[in-house]
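Entry 14. Structure prediction run on the chain below.
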Amino acid sequence: MPRNRFGLSRNIPSPVKREVRQRCGFGCVVCGAGIYDYEHFAPEFQHARFHDPNGITLLCPQCHQRKTRRRLSIDTVESANADPVCLRSGFVSEPFDFAVGHPIEVFLGANVFRGCGSLITLGETPVLSIGPPSEVGAPFTLSTFFSDVAGRVTCVIDQNVWRAATENWDIEWSGPRLIVRRGRRDIVLDLTVEPPGRIRIERFYLQFQGRHLRSNAEMLEFSGDGVSWGQMVCMQFNGVGFHLP
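Output returned:
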């Protein structure tokens, strides 16, 4: 693990990372992108003696490279860190990369959906759907939303672009895995993207018009009243999705 001249490792402790994410609004403080690196700026890493969360910020890979190559000034980074764009807008977002011409395959727990337009329909409303390419040379599009148990929307995916509210307690990307928490032990979304055309949603909650869906790594559960629950385990849906009246 590379260390600076004071012997400080680049391995930032998890509590410090979380404090930085929360302060920065879970995205690049300059442009708002949801994929980020942790960047020491006050002081820069080579001069840091410890991992001070107040001297670390979030920069997307592009902005990080601009700073590293001296095309983005420390003054600009400090100004953005003091007023992160995601906190001003109230959300953080980032597009998913689904390949052109490649169907999207969705795993909900251990259940798999292939070739379905409406994967999940609650009442008369599709709440998890895949749309055709908008034009020649465009990919298929995934759209859905997720909520907490009270029905408050925590994250949406709108035509392959995910967007999450900065009022969430924590939003963490780790490689291809996204975890959204409403509280320290309250995970409302845990998904992994696998380009070119697969997404695994291992944990989520969705409440819509009195109907409920929730999932863990093993099963998908559904309820019409939030009290009595049914289960789906290791089912495959090909062409036709799931409908909860």
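Residues 171 and 180 are 5 Å apart (CA to CA).
Filed with the rest of this week's runs.
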